[in-house]
Amino acid sequence: MNKLLNIALLLLTLSWVSCSSSGNDDPNPTPNGGDGSQNLQTVKYTSTKEDFFNPERGMYTMVESNLTTPLSAARLNTAKNAKESLVQIVYYLKDRRNQALSTADLNKITTDLATVRQAGLKAILRFAYSSAATEPDAPLNIIEQHLNNLKPVLVQNKDVIACVQAGFIGAWGEWYYSTNGLNNTAARNAVLQKWLEVLPKDRCVQVRTPAYKQTFTGIAAPLNATTAYKGTPQARIAQHNDAFMADETNMGTYVDVAKDKAFVAEEALYTPLGGETARPNSSTPPSRGSVALQELKTLHWSFLHDGYDPVVLKQWERDGVMDEIRTQLGYRLVLMRGQYSTQHAPGSELMVKLSIYNIGFAAMYNPRKVQLILRSTSGDVYVATLPDDPRTWKPRQATTLTAKVALPGNLPAGDYQLLLFLPDAEPSLAARADYAVRLANKNMWETTTGYNNLGVKIKVDATAKLPQSTSNIQFIKQ
Q1: Which end of the chain is more exposed for a tag (fewer CB within 10 A), N or C?
Q2: What was the pLDDT predicted at 38?
């Protein structure tokens, strides 16, 4: 499979095929960039198979909490050292089945999320009242009260929330085995509606089966490029699967297996899909790695639990697929080629054309910025924010990123480095390297800044006679 991928990357490098919204560009551009006014230099880049840390994707660690013991920073640092950027926190509210969450409770959750932030990870949140089918959950009015209690915490800490899972109802919050009669459509819809009210609009809530989403929205068709990212219930409800590869239906996840899988595969191009493996019982043989790998790729998984089911995961290790799973869950972006203008003066235009290929299983699912960075030899930094949305860089597709950026009129002459920066959209995290996206290329990543160094020198000549740029995209000095 890796050989086929390498061949595909080679062919794409040679032809520079574009599959993005910029697809009308000439796939074999002339050296002068099309208008004869600028010569372009071409740089080809080398990919890497290295497993490295990247935000909001990959294997994740899971922590259970009953709000008595604070989240362990050491546990999160261990996960980060294992190249894991996500932690699932399952809060069991067993002592709060008949009462509101107190200020002390909310402060403990806030402290946990501060620990997540300090570690440089993001959280997948779930709340439940029972960790066994024989334990009680809570009545609907308490669930709704708890969600209202949680709203300020969710809003305050959305920067480190990757997504949430609907939870609350039944054992493990998986919407079954309810002792309060909540495993029905009305109760599930009420919980989901409340989640959509209290959760910031640019975050998704995952539900356990495709049918739960379809029933709530009344829409049988999956998301597409037109309906995604709109902040609607359809755009914000995603899937988690905690019985991946357990059996044909994934222990009831699917009803019409082929139809439901097709729905999930399309949905997960725009929303996060994740979960864990399982076996129906201890005598069931684990699924085979090759089959699981293809399923993860086809369904576009973004993240997978690193600890369950251990028998299944060990089998996949023996089958030799875990390295590929670890590196390709979610997005994985390879820069294949770049073209850059060669003549620049203060106030003139910098032209950039990048060919990026996503070799991952999925795409990004939360908002993220795309920025070009100019850095002088003295360390001055200029930033240009591009209008592109990296969530549209879909798996197994190439994207051509084209930009014409105005240089400042007072830009000092000299040599500048050009870098690509994909920072978190939240201001609290935007300057942190551990929340920026790293490209899967050799000799490019800067660990302290989170920049991807494009390896090209931009020379600015104050005496050059060049037209002044009219672009509304401009480099701004920081």
Answers
A1: C
A2: 65
For β-strands 349-358 and 333-341, DSSP reports them as antiparallel
Take residue 288 and report the two structure tokens written for it. Answer: 């085979």
Same-domain pairing of 17 and 78: no
Look up the CATH number of the domain holding residue 449. 2.60.40.770
* 137/131 Cα distance (integer angstroms): 9
Residues 307 and 336 in one domain: no
Tens of pLDDT, residue by residue over 419-469, are 999 999 999 999 999 999 999 999 999 999 999 999 999 999 999 999 999
Lookup result for tokens 């009015």? 141
Does 90 share its domain with 239? yes
- CB contact set of 178 (below 8 Å; sequence gap of 6+): 137, 169, 170, 187
d(CA 237, CA 122): 19
Amino acid symbol at 217? T
Mean per-residue pLDDT for 161-171? Answer: 98
Residues 86 and 42 in one domain: no
For tokens 């599930």, name the residue: 188
pTM: predicted TM-score of the whole model, two decimal places: 0.92
Radius of gyration for the chain, computed over Cα atoms and rounded to the nearest angstrom: 24
β-sheet with 476-477: strand ranges across:
451-460, 414-421, 370-376, 381-386, 476-477
User: Is the CB of residue 341 less than 8 Å from the CB of residue 350?
Assistant: yes
Q: What would the two tokens of residue 281 be? A: 């019982």
Confidence of residue 21 (pLDDT cuts 50, 70, 90): very low
How far is Cα 306 from Cα 44, in angstroms, rounded to an integer? 35
**Sequence-ordered list of residues with C-beta below 8 angstroms from that of 430, at least 6 positions apart, any chain:** 369, 423, 424
CATH number at residue 80: 3.20.20.80
Percent of the chain past pLDDT 90, that is, above it, reads 91
| Residue 46 per-residue DSSP state | -
Residue after which a domain boundary falls, among 273, 304, 328: 328
Please check whether residues 374 and 251 belong to one and the same domain: no
- What are the structure tokens assigned to 201, written together? 């609009």
Considering its fold, how many domains does the chain have in total?
2
Rounded distance, CA 404 to CA 471, Å?
A: 7
Among residues 300, 328, 356, the one where a domain terminates is 328
Question: What spatial distance separates the first Cα and last Cα of the chain, rounded to whole Å?
Answer: 44
Task: Verify that 181 and 258 share a domain, yes or no.
Answer: yes
Residue 379 dihedral angles phi and psi, to the nearest 5°: 100, 0
Q: Domain containing 454: what range?
A: 2-50+332-477
From start to end of 245-377, where are the E strands? 273-277, 303-305, 333-341, 349-358, 370-376
Do 252 and 336 share a domain, yes or no?
no
Please count the other Cβ atoms lying within 10 Å of the Cβ belonging to residue 447.
10
